[in-house]
Amino acid sequence: MADIVATAVAAGSFNTLVAAVKAAGLVETLQGPGPFTVFAPTDDAFAKLPAGTVESLLEPANKDKLVAILTYHVVPAEVLAADVVTLTEAPTVNGQQIAIDTTNGVKVNGANVVQTDIQCDNGVIHVIDAVILPA
Predict the structure, then answer these.
(1) Most C-beta atoms within 10 A of its C-beta, which of 3, 19, 69, 125?
(2) Of all helices (H) and strands (E), which one includes residue 91?
(3) Is 16 exposed, middle or buried (CB count within 10 Å of its CB: 0-12, 13-18, 19+)?
(4) How many whole angstroms separate alpha carbon 12 and alpha carbon 60?
(5) Burial of 51 per CB tally in 10 Å (0-12, 13-18, 19+)
(6) Contact, 4 vs 125, CB < 8 A?
(7) Do residues 76 and 36 touch, judged by C-beta distance below 8 A?
(8) Confidence label for 85 from pLDDT (cuts 50, 70 and 90)
(9) pLDDT in tens, 9-32
(10) Does residue 84 register a pLDDT over 90?
(11) Which domains does the chain possess?
């Protein structure tokens, strides 16, 4: 198995997320021992953001904002799909809670979880169809 970053790179559908993680200086963190749970937006999810948003976030001047957004997608524990269904919220590395709704499929802050339990050496990835933003 590979770490979270290597797994995301190999998947091929997280190029924007990987670029953002690199720009935010979070590669070493997400290659660390963890465990982490990453709610990973696909390239299509990033494409749904208003035009120019991603490019703006990748600029060095916006690094703090980018870090805040990316760390909002990471829970500092391994939370498998079987665990998620018992939760209504989870704390993120960002410090804020994400809302979890399991009434009709699984949603995290309104984003649909479209694939679960991609195991990595240092945690797990759940794929989501939208970028979630902290308050």
Answers:
(1) 125
(2) strand 89-91
(3) buried
(4) 24
(5) exposed
(6) yes
(7) yes
(8) confident
(9) 999 999 999 999 999 999 999 999
(10) no
(11) 4-128 (2.30.180.10)
pLDDT in tens, 28-82: 999 999 999 999 999 999 999 999 999 999 999 999 999 999 999 999 999 999 9
Residue 67, CB-side half-sphere exposure with 13 Å CA sphere: 11
d(CA 1, CA 93) in angstroms, rounded, equals 23
Residue 102 neighbours by CB under 8 Å, 6+ apart: 84, 85
**Single-letter amino acid, residue 86:** T
Three-state SS annotation for 27-82: HHHHCCCCCEEEEEECHHHHHCCCCCHHHHHCCHHHHHHHHHHHHCCEECCCCCHH
What tokens does 1 get?
A: 């198995």
- Pick from 113, 47, 101, 39: which is nearest to 70 by CA? 39
